[in-house]
Amino acid sequence: MTDRDPASDDATSTDEVSLHDESLCARGGWFDEFTTPPSNPPLYQTTAFDLHGVEHLEAVTSGAEHGYIYTRDGNPNHAAFAADVAALEHAEAGAVCASGMGAVSAIFLSHLKTADHVVAGRILYGRTSQQLGELQKRFGIEVTFCDANSPETLGAAVRDNTKLCLVESVSNPLMEVVDLPAVIAAVGEVPVVVDNTFATPCLFRPIDHGAAMVFHSASKYLNGHGDVMLGVVAGNSHAITKVRRITSLFGLNANPFECWLASRGLRTLPLRVRQASQNALAVAKFLEGHAAVSRVYYPGLSSHASFGIAQRLLPHGAGGMVSFELQAGEAGVRPLFRRLVETIPFSPTLADVRTTLSWPAGTSHKFMDPDERRARGISDGLVRLSVGIDSVDDVISELDAALNQLP
After folding, report:
1. pLDDT tens digits for 334-350?
2. Dihedral sign, CA of 145, 147, 148, 152?
């Protein structure tokens, strides 16, 4: 091994000096020291990857050699995040998408065609229900909504052309916990797809109970810091290969930087979920005893209809999401949000490290017919609280002060 002059790190080769300025600038940004492994995963913020030649292209596209060609088709940051989520979900493989809606779109587009049938839970994220309606109206895919609290109704809805059953592990926004083993038994051979956004694999792993695929809005708990728009699907290798093809073909692919951020957020997922669950249970107990609140929806409370199922399937906590009805109904929503704007803000998302409020009737389920929304138990006076990892004493004190000022 020869001695090396440290000053040579900043040196410019004779060949580089001979280039024109335009070439030096256009071809710059590279350095031999990039080969030293970084302590943190690098960001591959690139549109495409340089290939050694046509033979290299053919080897990568055929699968004979591992590699990347174009970021819409795949990127190391995509692969890293998807692999971590798949491992957490006990799945064979994963695929990332531009958003949670991109993830569910990729599942539908890769597994359904005209005249196929889907059985779905009656209480779902509003946009998921809306998308199922669009598939029915525009593409002739039949959809039957059933009460997921009664698995036998899902089973009774299965037809010869039923291709998927869709449920949420913890429903948005009423926090109903699905009895997934019972659902899977009821629908038989129909693949069950689970939105596991609220529970996360830290609290529940649907694939362990027989689900075919799991998807997340990774913008929520998996990233956990309110600065990413991302979705992810996990399942067996065959299903995920179909999903990946659709993400590329329909442009549902994720951004490398979003994946890099989500990978960073994922490192603290168990800690955040554990603390948020503990805080949410304390907040739910407080709300249940407050005179301005008529009802609380939290599966960790014995008063919740899903309490028994939650005790069996979610033994490590019921998550950080709490919904509650105001005694004043819709008339109490606006003044409550105004009084909390500086401490617990109205933010139409969830699962940030800070505690936030949302109004399902005006955000997540706004696009549902009002009568249909109310028929599903989502009233105009329902408030959804995403409890974070901030001090639970502060959160309760702030809620108490605001609730005490309501009519």
Report:
1. 999 999 999 999 999 99
2. negative
